[in-house]
Write a structure and sequence with these properties.
four-stranded mixed β-sheet; alpha+beta
């Protein structure tokens, strides 16, 4: 057996938190999207809150699904109309597919998916039940509606074949007190991207010889220290 690569990589939070200690001041608002489980993100939020920094750390993996799991109260939800991004560099249904298994998570809720070309975010309209009859005079909903904008962090990059693709990434925003526009608004490289790059580099850089078969098996494994959700 030939080992091409055997490495340990730090988690994104391991270098993001020291950066925020340097760049985020008391009173700032931080938003970050990471490939981290909810427990670690909540712990990092508490750590930053102790330093006066208001932080919301979201999942970069299936951001729409995690928005519903972590930020939407589903008890009175009747309908969710979701307009999903359609972007250059990605198949037309890429972000529709990333919504799976949203409909199954909320039985009894009418989930509708519609395309929204030229954006990098989901537009979410939530309608809630308002009472015993749900409707008021004039045909409107007694429960009212909510509008949300759910960011989907991606960036155009070159893949291992040299083609330009829209790839998931981490993201960081830092906004000053009372500010509307963040002074930092940029992608951050995550451990998932680093693992992919290191593996592709190792495979490309190895001398496979000139005769087939070049190998019997090529086994790629990565141990990610987090728990799956049910």
């Amino acid at each position: 057996m030939t080992v091409l690569l055997d490495e340990r990589l730090p988690r994104t939070l391991a270098h993001l938190l020291p950066r925020l200690e340097r760049e985020a001041a008391s009173g700032d608002r931080v938003e970050a999207w990471l490939f981290e489980g909810a427990a670690r993100r909540r712990a990092a939020e508490r750590y930053l809150a102790e330093r006066g920094v208001r932080a919301v750390l979201r999942s970069a993996y299936k951001p729409l699904v995690h928005f519903f799991l972590e930020e939407v109260s589903a008890g009175t939800l009747r309908r969710a109309t979701i307009r999903y991004p359609v972007c250059d560099g990605a198949p037309e249904k890429r972000f529709r597919l990333e919504a799976y298994p949203l409909a199954a998570l909320f039985p009894g809720v009418d989930v509708r998916l519609l395309p929204l070309p030229g954006t990098s975010h989901y537009q979410v309209e939530l309608e809630r039940r308002g009472g015993s009859n749900d409707m008021v005079a004039g045909g409107g909903s007694a429960g009212g509606t909510e509008m949300h904008r759910v960011f989907a962090p991606n960036r155009i990059r070159e893949d291992h074949l040299g083609e330009r693709v829209l790839a998931p990434t981490g993201w960081l925003r830092i906004t000053g007190p009372g500010g509307d526009r963040p002074r930092v608004d940029e992608p951050i490289v995550t451990e998932y991207e680093t693992i992919f790059d290191r593996v592709m580099s190792a495979v490309r850089g190895h001398d496979w010889g000139t005769r087939e078969p070049y190998f019997e098996q090529l086994v790629i494994g990565a141990e990610i220290p987090d728990a799956d959700e049910a």
